[in-house]
Amino acid sequence: MPITHIVAAGMGGIRTAGDLVAWMQMARRMKLADAKAYVADKLGVDVVDLVDEDVMHPLRKEMGIGTATPMAGGPEGILAKSRVADLLGIEINSVKRFKSRFEK
């Protein structure tokens, strides 16, 4: 976990795509280069764009996967995390537990 945190923080975390890359490292045990390539493919950008805040902020806003600065009416919290899970094709425990409350 500490290594993943350092990598995510070094990539800018939610300011860019560091959080998404970290999710792939944790959820699928991907190596850093593979995780970056996977995330870039899912976002439709080049790997070098993953650390560019000018590219990622509008893209994150458009895709509704959360931004570092909250926007009025924009997705936050569990909604943004749910969209991240759907985008990356992973299961996030908190999202799964939240959704299970409404599936009765």
Protein architecture, described:
The structure is a single chain. The protein has 104 residues and is an all-alpha fold. It has one domain. Helices cover 60% and strands 0% of the residues. The protein has six helices and no strands. The longest helix is centred in the middle third of the chain and has 12 residues. The model has no long low-confidence stretch (mean pLDDT 88).
Bin the helical content: 55-70%
Calculate the mean pLDDT score and round it.
Answer: 88
Report, as a whole number of angstroms, the end-to-end distance.
Answer: 34 Å
Order of helices and strands, N to C?
Answer: HHHHHH
Structural class: mainly alpha
Uncertain residue ranges: none
Tell me what portion of residues adopts beta-strand conformation. Answer: under 5%
**Rounded Rg:** 13 Å
The total number of structural domains is 1
Sheet of most strands: none
Oligomer: single chain
User: Number of DSSP helices?
Assistant: 6
